Amino acid sequence: MQATEITRRNAAERRRDTLARLGAERDVWVSTAHPDHGPHQVPLWFLWDGRAVWMCTGAASATARNVREEPRIRLSLPDTFDVVLLQGEVEAYPAGDVPTDAADAFTAKFGWDPRTEQGSFLYLRVEPTTVRAWRGEPELRGRVIMRDGAWLG
Predict the structure, then answer these.
(1) Where do the coiled-coil regions begin and end (predicted)?
(2) Tell me, what CATH number does 89's domain have?
């Protein structure tokens, strides 16, 4: 196995790359926890609106149940080398109450509109309070690129 040299990015470069990935990717790992049922992790489609992540899940799902009890959440993009972790709190919207612009953008991205489904769905909005991003060990130092909802660098 050949090692690949990693060029260490500064905070501004990490922010730029993270925002590009949030705008382009479609899947995110969603980690929640419930005081009685413990941790739960599931992949969901997501939309980045420039400020927050929007996801949608069944209203009776373990994810929905967990965020109703404990709104703190962690999200991660599905790459173990180019790591992006987001933390925040969920704002939950039943499909009938979701802001139209967010639901329309979600539908445009995925070609699926939960508002038209027979089942009950819950939209989840997470505005990150903390973002960590790194590529390999050389970037572990300085991996926090957002703290308390403010981008660093």
Answers:
(1) none
(2) 2.30.110.10
